[in-house]
Amino acid sequence: MSNLVWNIGYGHFLVLAAVLFLIGVVGVLVRRNALIILMSVELMLNAANVTLLAFSRMWGDLSAHTFALIVIAVAAAEASVGLAIVVAVFRGRRNVEVDRLTTLRH
Amino acid sequence: MDQLSLQLPFGLTVSLPNLVWIPVLPLLGALMNLVFGRWLPKRVVSTVAIGAVGLAFVYAAALVFGPLFREFQAGRGGIGITQIVYTWIEVGSFKAQLAFRLDTLSAVMILIVTFVGTLIHIYSMGYMAHDPRYTAFFGYLNLFTGSMLILVLAANMPVMFIGWEGVGLCSFLLIGFWYENDAFATAGRKAFVVNRIGDFAFLLGMFLLFWATKGTDVGDAGSLDFASLKNPAVGAAYASQFWGGERLAAAAGILLFIGACGKSAQLPLFVWLPDAMAGPTPVSALIHAATMVTAGVYMVCRLSFLYASSTTALIVVATVGLLTALAAAFMAFAQTDLKKVLAYSTVSQLGFMFVAAGTGNWTAAIFHLGTHAFFKACLFLGAGSVMHSLEHEGSTTPGDIMTMGGLRHRLPLTHITFLISCLAIAGIVPFAGFFSKDEILGGAFSVHPPGWPSVYGKFLWAGLLLGALGTAFYMWRLYFLVFAGESRSDAAKQAHESPLTMTVPLVILAAFATFIGFIGLPHFEHLSLPHPLAHWLEPSVTREWYASGLPGVQEIEGHASDGTTWLLMGVALLVGVAGITGAYLFYGHGPSKTVERLVEGHGPLAGVYEASSHKLWFDEVYDAIFVRPFKMLARGLFEITDRFVIDTVAVNGTAFVIGIFGRISRWFQNGNVQRYLAGVVVGGALVFFMTDCHDKPTFTYKVSGNQIRLHAEPGSGIEGANAKIYWDLNGDGQKDLDTASPSGLLEKRDVTAIGNVGPITMWIVDPITHKEWKVTQTINLNANAPEAQGAK
Quick one: which of B138, B423, B684, B757 could link to B428 by a disulfide (CB 3.0–4.6 Å)? Predict the structure, then answer.
């Protein structure tokens, strides 16, 4: 057991990533505030980044870094667009509770 | 190829083979009038229409008396001039060219069509002067002329069929020209439907001919070109056995003849023609007397070689012709409508032509076709002139001959021309009908196709004689009732002669009805009389029975001595005079009391009269046998297929099912993003857990000689993680040792075991979790399987 705890291997990173991802998913699913949801999405994206880097290290191959960088760039773009939408919605409705933004139903 | 170019405005030049111009000119006129006519004044419309047909006539005459006449003199009158515009359809061995041919037979037809057509166009100018759809009328009339010219000039059967259908369409359009009247529109539909029945058989006959000739060793076999169909090399195909042991020519000939029955109003498909009198009178004259209805006769003569190859087909043609001639003559007795009498007369005369064709007397058929075109067109136009004048005087039933009488003084020109035509149709010498009808009668009497019952020709002759008697009687009954005696209505008392545009064509047609007969004087052995028409047509029609180079070929000729010929002519003339005398006795001074006593109430001839006026109840029988069951079937199909299957099941059913799905999916789509995402997550998880992506670890082996080459397959998920592989090759249950490896154990992916060994075990150890999988296989070193492949 102590071996498992102290010998930090690839498994630790993957578990960390899974935990981060799950936190992100739960955050997106249960929180009402659009800002928090955006933050949770960031968590999920970064969990993916951690996995990518862990495998990159495992294989000794740097190409996964490229993916990670792209994910960061996309995440930045997503965050800016998402925040802009949130701000726009807030201006119109004075709240950003997603369960009240249901105009796009059938 | 001889081309004729037309210089159009805007620097356009249209250049077409010169034969093509003959049908194209009227078609251009039709195009012009139907498309732009509504913006043109009436004078321009009629000028364009008449000009188009007139030009076609002039040009046709120039071609016939120019190049074709030279061909004729060179002995190539039957080959004529052929011009191919382009290849229309080419599929497999079927090759249809858009091709036209002018030979001596089609030459006669185009001259009749364009000449009579021109006169009738001129007549229409007066007759239709006050019609609101003047332009459309001339457009259709031109379209008809063009189609008819395509029909007669066609060099092969598919092109002929274009014309065949084209004239059918125009007939429909023109019969139903005054379609505001329901009965007239129905008449047009009836003509169309009845013709379709014939056309279907025509198509079948065409297919059969194609099937029979496509494999023959003739120039362009499979093109259905008349020239290649006529080639003696095809004769064997016509003579080959077909249904019921008959020759193929019989089946093809009869099928095509059914088509001719539809178009040429023969029994049992004649019922549309009397109703077709609903159309304007020039239409009746042009389409339903002079040209379109003769298309069937023309077709049979065009395919004379086919009919001459089958006794059965000939006997069918002749018999149907005779029955039609008699039945129609009988039906004409009791008609009281001016045009109806003429319609039955047309049916009857067409029957005469088919008897001529059925006895191999092709020239006589075409001769009578020509003379009939003139005197029947003249009669129809005369009838139109009478009705036109009565209509002007306020008659509500302008066609009822019982309200006429005494018109000879008020319509002098119409009267004279009508009289001449009546003499011609009754067969009084020297008017045209005498010579042509006499040739048919003489032919039936003396020509004897091989294989016919010996007295059948005499029987046909006697039947025709009876028909001729009937013709003379009902035509002169008509003449006396219309022109003789005293006027029986106010309108008839006020009538006055029609305008010049109407009477001039009448006079010209009457002149032809008088003199045209002299182009076909009777044939005597000891007296040489010219018969230029027969001489002219001879190259285009066959002169032999079984014209195929097969056994049984013999010349078609009648064997009548001069005395017999004189006698036959005398009898025919006598019959005509007798008919006229009979008509004079009964109707010379208007409807007679004698006739009324005979036919009304319980008079001795009441039943006969009833049968005649109801045209032997043909319509009623067809209604009961075909029309009603068909309507019921249609009604049933409508209720089941249309109402139930399509409307209820297909259309509403689709909407219903989609509605259900819509209701279900609406319940999901509630606008809550988080619920959507929950769906995505749950779905993703399901995909992840339900998909079996774990390959079980195993190893494969290959046996060669006494060596076993082993290869580890760690399975997915572990291989990438640098799994450690250990082996037990000696079967002691322990991992084998290898001093060369750092761990001291045999740690390789590929190993080789030597000799027959016990169970081999492989261990796979996950480098991260240190979990172990253990795989054991017992390998049987079988000498019989040198390259045995290990399964998992």
Answer: B423
Is the full-model pTM beyond 0.80?
no
Contact A58 B721 (CB under 8 A): yes
Per-residue CA distances from B660 to B63, B184, B644, B668, B671 (Å): 74, 51, 21, 13, 20
Residues of B in contact with A54 (CB under 8 A): none
CA atoms in the 13 A half-sphere facing the CB of B182? 0
Give the model's pLDDT for residue B321: 94
For residue B16, list its beta bridge partners: B4
Alpha carbon B366 to its chain's center: 22
Contact B671 A30 (CB under 8 A): no
Among the four given CATH numbers 1.10.10.410, 1.10.287.3510, 1.10.3720.10, 1.10.10.10, the one describing domain A2-100: 1.10.287.3510
Interface membership of A5 toward B (CB under 8 Å):
no
Q: What percent of chain B stands above pLDDT 70?
A: 93
Domains of chain A, by residue range, sit at 2-100
ipTM (interface predicted TM): 0.79
Q: Which residue has the higher pLDDT, B267 or B218?
A: B267
- Contact call for B669 and A105, based on CB within 8 A: yes
Count contacts between A and B (CB, < 8 Å): 35
Tokens of B130: 């006050």
Contacts (Cβ under 8 Å, ≥6 apart) of B153: B19, B22, B23, B100, B101, B102, B106, B110
Residue pLDDT, tens place only, A66-80: 999 999 999 999 999
Helices (H), B93-225: 104-127, 134-153, 157-175, 182-213
Give the total residue count for chain B: 792
CA distance A69 to chain B (A): 24
CATH number for the segment(s) B698-778: 2.60.40.10
When the pLDDT of each residue in chain B is averaged and rounded to a whole number, the result is 85
pLDDT-derived band at B368, boundaries 50, 70, 90: very high
Q: What is the pLDDT of residues A45-68, one digit of tens each?
A: 999 999 999 988 887 888 889 999
Interchain contact A102–B (C-beta under 8 A):
yes
DSSP letter for each residue of B373-408: HHHHHHHHHHHHHHHHHHHHTT-S-TTBGGG---TT
The residues spanned by each domain of chain B are 333-524+555-613, 632-690, 698-778
**Contact by Cβ (8 Å): B9, B119:** no
Going by pLDDT thresholds of 50, 70 and 90, the confidence category of residue B52 is very high
CB-based contacts of B791: which residues, under 8 Å, 6+ apart?
A: none
Helix axes B412-426, B432-446, angle to 10 degrees: 10
Which of A1, A26, A86, A102 best tests the B interface by mutation, with the highest count of B CBs <10 A? A102
Q: What is the pLDDT of residues B70-98, one digit of tens each?
A: 888 888 888 888 888 888 888 887 888 88
pLDDT digits (tens, 9 = 90+) for B453-463: 888 888 999 99
**Chain B residues within an 8 Å CB radius of A99:** 672, 674
Which of A10, A37, A105 is facing B670, going by the closest CB pair? A105
Q: How far from each other are the two terminal CA atoms of chain A, in whole angstroms?
A: 54
